[in-house]
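Inverse folding, one chain.
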C-alpha cells in the first residue's frame, strides 16, 4: 500500500540550530503512529513541517500524492501547500478556538471560508463532527463556557470538518488538567478505531501502548528507535529510549500520588 505521508531526508534549521536531521518517514493509510521524545527533540517541528506551518530547510515531503521538494517555487509551490493543508487536519496543544464564535460556528468556519461550502451544508457537517466527539449538546455555547477538555474536543471536530486524509495531533493533552485528559484520549481512540490515519506527538504512554500501530522515538532531531508498542515499551534497545520511558513512568507515578 502506497504511503499517504512520506518524508525523505527532511532537514530543518532554525538559524544555526539543526532541529531535524535527514528524517525519512512513511505513514500508510489508517495507520496510527505516535512520536515520543524529550522536549526539543524535534517532534512538533516534524508535524509542522509536514503541513508547512514551518518551512522545511531541505528534503522532500509527500502527502496523498502531492509532492514538494526544494525545486518547486512560487505559485506552484503555494498551490501545493494549500492542497496539502486541505488534506491534513491539525490539532494543537492550545485549542485556538475563535472566542467570538459559538462551538458550531467554530467548526463550520473552515468549510465555509476555505472550501467555499454553503452554510446549510457546513452546519450539517459541523453537527455531524460535534456528535463524533460528544459535543452536540454544546453547539451553541461560546468557548469561554467550556472546559479545556471540551475545547480540545471542539478543536478536533473543527479539524475533522475539513474531511482531511490525515490527522496530525501536536501534544493535544499537554495543556489539560489531568482529570480532563481522558475525555480527549477517548475521542482519539475512537477515531483510530474508525480507521483515521493519525500522526500523534504525545507523552501519554498508555495511549500509545493501546492505540498506536508504531511508536517512533526522536532524540536530537533524529529517529533513534521505532517499533510496535509491545516491542518498544517491552524491550527498548537504545539507552536514550530506556531513560525516556523511565522518566515517563516516574512522571506518571508522581501524578497518581
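Residues assigned per position:
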Amino acid at each position: 500500500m502506497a504511503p499517504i505521508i512520506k518524508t525523505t531526508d527532511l532537514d530543518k534549521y532554525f538559524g544555526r540550530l539543526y532541529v531535524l536531521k535527514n528524517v525519512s518517514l512513511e505513514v500508510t493509510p489508517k495507520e496510527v503512529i505516535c512520536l515520543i521524545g524529550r522536549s526539543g527533540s524535534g517532534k512538533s517541528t516534524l508535524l509542522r513541517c509536514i503541513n508547512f506551518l514551518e518551512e522545511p530547510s531541505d528534503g522532500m515531503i509527500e502527502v496523498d500524492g502531492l509532492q514538494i521538494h526544494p525545486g518547486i517555487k512560487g505559485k506552484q509551490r503555494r498551490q501545493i501547500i494549500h492542497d496539502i493543508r486541505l488534506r491534513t487536519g491539525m490539532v494543537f496543544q492550545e485549542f485556538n478556538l475563535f472566542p467570538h464564535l459559538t462551538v458550531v460556528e467554530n467548526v463550520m468556519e473552515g468549510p465555509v471560508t476555505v472550501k467555499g461550502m454553503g452554510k446549510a451544508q457546513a452546519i450539517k457537517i459541523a453537527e455531524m463532527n460535534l456528535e463524533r466527539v460528544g459535543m452536540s449538546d454544546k453547539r451553541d455555547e461560546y468557548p469561554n463556557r467550556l472546559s479545556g477538555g471540551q475545547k480540545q474536543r471542539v478543536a478536533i471536530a473543527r479539524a475533522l470538518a475539513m474531511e482531511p486524509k490525515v490527522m496530525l495531533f501536536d501534544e493535544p493533552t499537554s495543556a489539560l488538567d489531568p482529570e480532563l485528559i481522558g475525555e480527549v484520549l477517548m475521542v482519539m481512540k475512537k477515531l483510530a478505531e474508525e480507521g483515521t490515519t493519525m500522526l500523534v506527538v504525545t507523552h501519554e504512554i498508555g495511549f500509545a501502548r493501546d492505540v498506536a500501530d508504531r511508536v517512533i522515538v526522536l532524540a536530537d532531531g533524529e529517529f533513534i528507535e521505532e517499533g510496535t508498542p509491545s516491542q518498544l515499551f517491552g524491550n527498548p534497545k537504545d539507552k536514550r529510549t530506556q531513560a525516556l520511558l523511565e522518566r515517563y513512568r516516574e512522571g506518571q507515578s508522581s501524578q497518581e500520588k
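Residues 101 and 190 are 27 Å apart (CA to CA). The mean pLDDT is 93.
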